[in-house]
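Hey Z.,

So I finally got round to the zinc ion thing we talked about over coffee. Here's the setup:
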Amino acid sequence: MHTTWYLSGARLVTAHADIANAALVVENARIAAVGGAAAMTPPAHARALDVSKFILVPGFIDLQFNGGFGHDFTAQPETIWQVAQELPRHGVAAFLPTIITAPFEKIQRAQSVLQNGAPENFRGATPLGLHLEGPFLNPQKRGAHNVAYMRLPDASSVRDWTPQNFVRLVTLAPELDGAREVIRALCENGVVVSAGHSMATFEEAQRAFDAGIAYGTHLFNAMPPLDHRAPGLAGALLNDARVTVGIIPDAIHVHPALVDLALRQKTAAHLNVVTDAMAALGMTPGKYLLGDFTVQVDETSARLEDGRLAGSILNLRDALVNLMRFTRCALSDALATMTTTPARVLHLENERGDIAPGYFADLVLLTADLRVAATMVQGQWAWYDAQELAL
Ligand code: ZN
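And the result:
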């Protein structure tokens, strides 16, 4: 039985709104009503909570998340639910568990983990389906992926990749032989297709967008650098209004000035902040797994032995603050990049990423200095800081 909540007094900020002294009613996992507190009456059966010292924002959505808190989803897909329980401490209410280049059996294992559903008494971020980053990638831009598992795109192997079978987003290199058929097949299945780990030229990228690619995975990383005579995939992603780009604002994957440039060019509606976090997120420096590889993690970055980056240890709350620092954008724009924009990329914009009647009650209470004080997922408090809030 769900508690009905009446939250009042907060400043409510979303991609489109900034309301002082707001109130909202949460009922049966969804938002039942929202507006100015002065004009609202709490339902008689609701539990009232004064949240006037907080900023109330939509729950964050991470489209690229490899693992955290000591666990790697590619090495061990069975840890997805356990890790999901930790994500609300960073304001994350929904995410795509990301499986990097791996044998198809591993992908099937990850699909089964989601198919089997949440364990009893689960309270955590909602996995919205998998992000399969591979195996159809270009070995020349392998990043921290295992080339041994990379293969050419093959439409027959993606037949059961659908949102119903827990595949939401697939990153592939569109210049590879067979990519066009796979892009078409996945789009028909309702899966979002992204270009990444790729050597695509500007022209090849444009043809891929024509074929249905709607997203670019971690702009600037694992693609040739932006060259003014050969703009390549990075130039095409920046230039084409049809595509949304993921970006990792940890000041290591991309220089802050180019994060700023990307936001100006794409706007918050087409820039999607992701963490690309790996197993060491929330842990101390040391050695951690990413897929088959051991990764050395220090205070700021995760790298293979040769220095190549291997995911990040960024969390979405810090990404929010970094984005505002790098670009001097408003809180509403920074929020858009991790709420309404990823929801739209996944075609879930009518029920996620915003605070409006009928939407899932995925909410975050931020302190005035933008720390996460509490996160509600589908109407239940999944995490809260007892120093800030008594529940
Ligand atoms: Zn990658």
